[in-house]
Every structure is written in C-alpha cells, then in structure tokens.
Amino acid sequence: MSQRSRHQSTWNQGLDNMAAPSGNTRGVMERSIRDRAPPLLTDLYQFTMAYAYWRAGRHQEPAVFELFFRDNPFGGGFSLFAGLHDCLLFLRSFHFTDEDVEFLRSVLPPATDPDFFKFLRGLDCSGVTLRSVPEGTVVFARVPLMEVAGPLAVVQLLETSLLCLVNYASLVCSNAARFRLAAGPSRRLLEMGLRRAQGPDGGLTASRYTHIGGFDLTSNVQAGFLFGIPVAGTMAHSYVTSFTSLEEVWPQTLVALNGDPDPVDFISLTKGWLSRVCELLRAEPGKIREGELAGFLSYAITYPQNFLPVIDSYSVGCSGLLNFCAVALALCELGYRPVGVRLDSGDLCRQSVDVRRVFRLCREHFSTSAFDSLIIVGTNNISEQSMDELNKMENEIDVVGVGTHLVTCTKQPSLGCVYKLVEVRGRPRMKISEDPKKSTVPGRKSVYRLVDAEGHPFLDLVCLAVESPPVAGVSLSCYPLGSDDSPASVTPAQVACLRQEVFIKGQVTHPLCSAAETRAKVQSSLQTVHPRHKRLHEPDSYTVALSKKLHHLVTETQKGSSNSSNFLLAN
Amino acid sequence: MSQRSRHQSTWNQGLDNMAAPSGNTRGVMERSIRDRAPPLLTDLYQFTMAYAYWRAGRHQEPAVFELFFRDNPFGGGFSLFAGLHDCLLFLRSFHFTDEDVEFLRSVLPPATDPDFFKFLRGLDCSGVTLRSVPEGTVVFARVPLMEVAGPLAVVQLLETSLLCLVNYASLVCSNAARFRLAAGPSRRLLEMGLRRAQGPDGGLTASRYTHIGGFDLTSNVQAGFLFGIPVAGTMAHSYVTSFTSLEEVWPQTLVALNGDPDPVDFISLTKGWLSRVCELLRAEPGKIREGELAGFLSYAITYPQNFLPVIDSYSVGCSGLLNFCAVALALCELGYRPVGVRLDSGDLCRQSVDVRRVFRLCREHFSTSAFDSLIIVGTNNISEQSMDELNKMENEIDVVGVGTHLVTCTKQPSLGCVYKLVEVRGRPRMKISEDPKKSTVPGRKSVYRLVDAEGHPFLDLVCLAVESPPVAGVSLSCYPLGSDDSPASVTPAQVACLRQEVFIKGQVTHPLCSAAETRAKVQSSLQTVHPRHKRLHEPDSYTVALSKKLHHLVTETQKGSSNSSNFLLAN
C-alpha cells in the first residue's frame, strides 16, 4: 500500500510526496548510461587525435578542457545547467571493451601501432578530475561550466560524450524553466512530448529534465519508473470514438461509497442526470453523442475516483461537457469525487471559462460541492508564447500539458555547448579566431558569483585558478566580456564559488542528486536571480567578467601570438 | 585485412563497399530496442485505457489504427518514411516483465483488478498484424503509412512507441534527403551532429537515418559499429592549439614509401618546402604559426596516408594553408598522397576557391600530381539554405559536414505523425472534428500509387480494403483531399500497391532491410518522383485522393453522426 501511494499518479498530487528513484534504480541507471552512451558513441576524430598524441608520446601530458556555451538559449537572459549526473555516471564507467577496440582497429589506418589498442583497452578515467557548476544552477553564456582535467588523450576522448550529455539536458531544462516562468508558479504543468522527441531516449531525457526545470507531471511511464516523476493521463480520443452505443457499456453498475452493497444501475442514473443537465443548460438532447456518453460511463465505472475524460472528441458545448456533467453528477450521487476534464483543441481559454461557468451552475443548481474542485486540463500545441498569452488572458485552466514545443525546443533546438582546450602541461592555450567571439580564454580558472546586498547575483567573475578569491565588501576591478574592454569596479555583498570538484581521479566525490533534489535546486537558484534577467523577452544581460590577471593573460597571449615566432627564418 | 578494408574510414571511400552490419549486430539491435524502447516508455493513458477496455471485456475486440502525418515537413512537397525496422523489432520483442507490471500496479488506482496485471504479464504482439509502406519510400501527407490491426487493448498500447520510432526517423531522413537535393548528387555529405542531438540515442538515430536519407559519411563511431556507416574525421582545433613549438613533434622522421629504409628528417624536409611555398605565394613567414605546423607535422608523421588537417585554427591564408602545403609537399616527396584540408569558419565558398587556386599553383610549380586530387571539406553551421546557396555559388568544396541543422531539423523539429482508430469489430470509426483537417477517414483501407506514362507517381489513391484495385489504363473517378469535394477522373499508366504486410500475428514476414538497402530504396524512390514535387521551395502539391466508395463512407458517417441518436429521449 505504501508502494502504491508513493507512486500513484493523480492530477492533484502534491510534489512533497514525490518518489525518489528506488535503490536498485541507481544500478539500472549506471548500466543504462553504458548502453546509452558507450565510449564509441563519439566522433571519430577523437580517436585519430588520441592516437596522434599517443604516437608522439604526448597522451599523458596534463591537459585542461572547459565546457561552456556562447549564447543564452531562446534569446533569453539565462540558462540552466543540467546533465552532470549522467556525465558522472559516464566518467565512472568509461572503458573500452574488446569488441570496441576490435572495431576501432578496423576503422583506424592499418599502420596503426597495435600497442595503441592495448593502451585503449586499459583506459579509464582514473586520471580525470572534473570541476563543475552544480546541476540545476542558473548559468550564463561564456562562463566555463565544467573543467575537465587529466591526461591529454583521455580528456580529448571525452569531448563528444560530455557535450552530448550536457547540451540537450541543459537546453530542455532551460526551456521547461521558461514555460514555468510563463505559466506562473501555481498552474500545474504536464510534459507529454515522448512521441515527438528524437526517438526513445530523447523522450526519456526530455521527461527527466523538463521535470527538473519545473514541470510537475509527465505522461511518460518509464520516466516515472526510472526517476520517480509523477505520471498522469487518462484517455485519448480513440477511447471515446471506439464506443458507439450504450450497449457497449459493461459492467453497467456501480456500488455507492456510502456502504450500500447493492449495485446501482449507473446508466439509468446518469441518463436521469443528463436530462436534468440538458434542462438546466437548455441543451438539445438530440446533439448528444451516445458513443461519447458510453465511453465516459465505461471509464467512470472503471475509475470512479479518477474520472477525467477528454471532452472535445465531437463538440464540447453540444455533447462532451453535458456528458461529463451527467456522469460526474451520477458519481457524486454515489459519493465519488470526479476529477475534471481535458480540452484538446480550439480556444482553450474561452472554452475553459465556459466549462467553469457550467461547473458553477451545476454546483449551485444541484448542490454538488465536488464541482468546486473540478480541474480543467488544457492540451493543444502549447508554445512558450501561447503559454505566456494564456497566462495573461482570462481562463480557468488548472493544468497545462505541453508536448512538441517543449521537447523539441522549437524556438532553438540546440544549445551549442563547446569544449575547448585551455591548458597543456601547465601552460595556457588559446584559440585565436578572426571572429573574436570564437576566441577562447586561456588558462585554468576559478569562477565566482558576486551577489548584491539584496541577495541577487549580479556578476560572474572568471579568474585564474591561482588568484585569491574576491572578498565580500571589498571593491575589485574587472573586465566585463562583450564590453569595450574597459575595466569596471564592483563591490560584492557576498561571494560564492560557482564550481566544485565532483569527480577526482576516477571517483565521484559529490553525492549524486536525485531528480527531485535537482528540481528543488533549479527553483532556489532561479529565485535568487533578479527578475530583469529572467524576463522572457529582451531581458537585461547579466555581466560575466574576467579578472584583471586573466584579462592580462588574454592580452599577452594575443600579443605574443601576433608577433608569432621566427622559427622559419631562424632555422 | 578484409575486416579492415571493410570498415576502414576514408573521405574518398566509395559506397559500393559499404559494410552491412555484421551478423551478431542484428542480435545487438534487437536487445538494444528493448533497452531503448521498453514497453513502459509510453504515455500513461495507454494503460488507463487498456484497463478500461479490459474491465469492459472489450480488450480482445479486433481494432485497426492508422499512422499518418497531416503536413509534409519543412514546407516541402514530400517526406520519406523511416523507422519501420525499429518498429518491427519493437513489436517482435514487446512484452512486460514482472518489474514493469509491479511498477504499473503502483501507478494505477488501488482498486484495479489484480487479474489485469496477469493479463499484462502475458501480453505480446502475437495477435497483431502490421501493413506498412516499405521503409525508405517517398510518402505524402494524409496517406495512411501503417495499419496496425489486432486486439483493441494491444494496438492501443503500441501507439506512443510506434509514433516515437517513426516520427523522428522519418523527419531526419527527410531532412537529409533535402540536404542531398540541395547539395546535388556528387558532393559528399558528412553527418556530424552527435553533440547537438537530443542525447545519445537522438544522435545515434540521426546518424542512421541521415545516412539512409542520402548522407555518405558520419563522424559517429558507434553508428559505424552498429550500422556499417562509413565513418570519417581527423582533427579538431584543440589538436592544433595543443602544440606550441616544433620541439613537441615526435617522432621527427618518416620513412619514404619508395623502399629506402633510412628515416628522413621530416621537420627539416617540411621547413624546406615551407620556404619554397612562402616564396611562391609571396607569404610572410613571420605570420606562420609554429604550433600549427608542429600539429600538422605530428599528425602527418602519424598518418602519412590520411593527412587532412583543419587549417583555420589561426588564419587560413597567412598560416594554415601554407603549413598544409609544406607538409603535403614533403609527404609527396616521400611518395605519400596527402588527402586534403578542412575549413571550419568564415566564407567557405570564397576560401575554397582560394585554397584550390593555391593547390593548382603548387601542382604546376612543384609538379606534384597528388595535388590534383586534394579534397576540401567544409564544415561551418551549414543549413539547408546555406547548402542551397553553396551549390549555386562558385566553390571547390568536395565534402560538406553538417551537424546542428541536420540532426535537430531546425526548420521543423518534429513531424507530427498521429495514430488514429479507424475500425472496431469490423465497423468503421471516425473522429469528426470541428477542424475538418483533424477529422479522420474511417475504415480499413488499401493504398495505391498511380503512375503516369513517364513513370512518375502522380496520385496516391486511398480505397476501402474491400474494393478491387485500380487497373492500369482504365480511367477512374476519385475525390482529391483538400479540394472542393468535387470528383476527378484519372487514368494511371501503372498502379502499385503502396503497403505490404510486414508483420503477421507476431512474426516479421518481410526481410529486415539493412541501412544500405534502405538507403538505396530512398534514392530509387526519390528518382521516380517528378521534380516539381521535389522542389525545396514552393513545390507543386502531390494529389492524395479517396476512392468513390471511401468518399461515400466519409459522407455517410458524417451525415449519420450529425443526425445522431435519440437515445436520450427514447429511453
């Protein structure tokens, strides 16, 4: 029974009793990451480069890569960082099987030294250290989110997998957070995009990270199973259209909740209510669809405590709503509480207002208090924009279901994280592009989040790792990125170190967070961000700045590089 | 060695020797579909409906669903149908484990009859029959692509999984086919979108179906392993920037191919060539990046037969191209054939023309015939539009790599296939929506493709299954969809039945096609389609029509439904 109540799906379920994945789920997830992201699921050039490093004896050189994105997604002012959990499981289980190595042998040139394949066979992440922003943190463009340090060949091999695991997770989590901001805090949000995602795993990843980003429920049963996300759903139109007549309803009786053991003829009872509803609403009984009523009756008899039909298979006003009210009133008479209705087409706002008015009429006329708490679910190709509009218009929608636009991130279907080399053998590395935005910032770094007196973060400061951290209350000079290269002076009220070591020499050193924990982190992180950065349209851009020393290193590296070497002439 | 040559990756590899997945790969794929698409990876409402059908004793009623999409993707005139292979594996292995059933028990209401879970535990697809368009066929909006017939509860449970497996596969395959049309037949296309896909499986699915849609190569090693797709890739910018000086190059020698056993000092040899190249091109040696040359040298020594560096880490004209030519000329001197270069930023067309001019200059000046066959790879955020433009402008790009816009289908990131009930217990079912486009076409059907005298398909005819097929040379009357409901008369020169039975009563009855076979099918199917339907912009729309009898059924069902029943008044 406790097992049941832990997982049981309901549209009204609070999140406080959301289930965490069960113990053995963790093992499933670790196995699953090896199936989902085997070490061959990467770009070929990682292997060609790894062999070139190995051949040159450079494969063990200590190297540092950074993962970041260059623009906040969806034209917004922020992103959320997600995917770390999967990255940690991936790093922990990273190794090549004999079969993997045999395939690589068939792909690399025949002259490849056989000892390289022995090297690959013995490879793992025991030399790798990962410093990362905690999963679920609000982050900004150009801040290095992850720092991956370790032997050059190994950290190079990790690139594509880490990008693949972070990019979509962060993107869809950010998208969900924007839908949540558009919807307001109280409306309940249901993710239902599995059928529109990039295949099965795209759908599962979407369910997980949209929940983390602020969605309450998912239609995806496997996501409930693996991640403990509350699942919801009742019926499709096909269920309704599969019925044509009341003769198909079976059983036809229902036992009242009041203890009376005699089954009641539920069809007759409902027909009586339907007459009264038609009378009250001056509806034409001739327009009511018998098949729809049969479907509702059959469903209500099966689920007397979970009655929430889709009411627009034919016509909401002429049939679906009347049939719902009749069945719901019959349920109420027997002591059950109907749950509500779903609208899946047309103008959801207007219809929801009409439906609520009818619920209130019934409640007054028939004195059924259960009609006070009926919920209205709206699902009809909702985009961020339509969610925003919906929130501004008069409506009575309690739960919104979102599919396509949520999981495919129509507005921007990829995040564009990159993974750049910043240090080899303790020496900073920089890619100097003719497009300044594509140049990288060299050196191993620390990142601090500076917070103002009101508790709002106002600047992320990127320093050299060797620098001492900024001090609360003490003014400092820095160089905001994207400005005209002039310094700014700021005084933080508080300073937080943005990243932490989460994986040291092959070991996960930070507790793996459950989806529920990361979900809470998202909301608390978003809470602190000033509304001007969270605005969905034309937000104020958040400042990311380099410390004086790091700025100096960038300038010197560029200068040194433009003087270039005279190696050609000198030799 | 045959194993090697089967898989060996090369930018120039012909497709005729493309590997089919090895025998044991098939088993891997079948296991993999159970991991990727377990039967719980579906929407909860499939289970709530299944229980309601079971409770009402309707679960065994014979039912028929159809899968189709309502609009051709990307504003185009056609789509490709893909995902069938995965659907067949999914159907074949469909069953619930004890663990699945226990989880469902915890999710469904406590009052759910325990016998229902026994029923689920014993469920499989032995009662299911699937008729489908062959994978890789050109298809059009509103044509029923798959017909899934079987016990009502079972075929209902399959909905989300089938949609999930077909939607993205067909979408990304169609996207790839459009890129192929934009690129022209001879340019080679490389898919490299793994890091931007919806997680690992999104990336793998993308690699597979873009190859089927017309791409030649993938960067994704796992896709090579599982599906035999030729893989390609050499180096990232990080490889180049990881070098700073020639001192890092090791080994520094290379043995000539001519049989001379004495290793040649490859650095000195290349330096000599670099001076001559600079002289020829009147380039400033002081601007040449030593680190870049070191990277190229080290790579060339490792891969003397596979030298294809990325040449824009610093400046193509001032450094990368000069370094490439020097190393390539040194390789030629030792009897090796350099492969080419990759450009990853800026104006690819203009740069490719410049690069080719330099190749020709070197070829003439230094008499190196190998420079005639150097290839230029372009990779820089290519979209369908930029591919189209590229194809129209002067350029020398031989291979184009496409990532983000290909795998995320930026122009339209979901296809929108739906799965609609059309028959129960032999009686047609129809969803009559206030939006006529959302109404369904009732009844079990056959679909014929009518072909004109030139061999071009010109009309897909949707008939009732019981009708006799159209006859070549005989005129017939039909009702084109989306027209003003007036009949049209057509005479086909040939008639083809569009769908075939591929899964009967639990058995796959049609050979599972390899990726290579389906890829060939795509091209042959596209070949037959008239260019006016294949135009990327504003194509002529292809006609899909209902037979007279089916049109009559639609009209009668609508009429019957608007008269509705008098069940309420009668009782």
TrEMBL record, chains A, B:
Under the heading Gene3D superfamilies, the entry gives: Aldolase class I (3.20.20.70), nicotinate phosphoribosyltransferase (3.20.140.10)
Do you know which Pfam families this protein is assigned to?
A: NAPRTase_C (PF17956), NAPRTase_N (PF17767)
**What Enzyme Commission number(s) appear in the record?**
6.3.4.21
Keywords attached to this entry: Glycosyltransferase, Ligase, Phosphoprotein, Pyridine nucleotide biosynthesis, Transferase
Q: Which GO terms describe its cellular component?
A: cytosol
Source superkingdom: Eukaryota
Described by its record, this protein's role is as follows: Catalyzes the first step in the biosynthesis of NAD from nicotinic acid, the ATP-dependent synthesis of beta-nicotinate D-ribonucleotide from nicotinate and 5-phospho-D-ribose 1-phosphate. Helps prevent cellular oxidative stress via its role in NAD biosynthesis.
Please identify the protein, giving its name as recorded. Nicotinate phosphoribosyltransferase
What species is this protein from? Larimichthys crocea
Top-down, what is the taxonomic lineage of the species of origin?
Answer: Eukaryota, Metazoa, Chordata, Craniata, Vertebrata
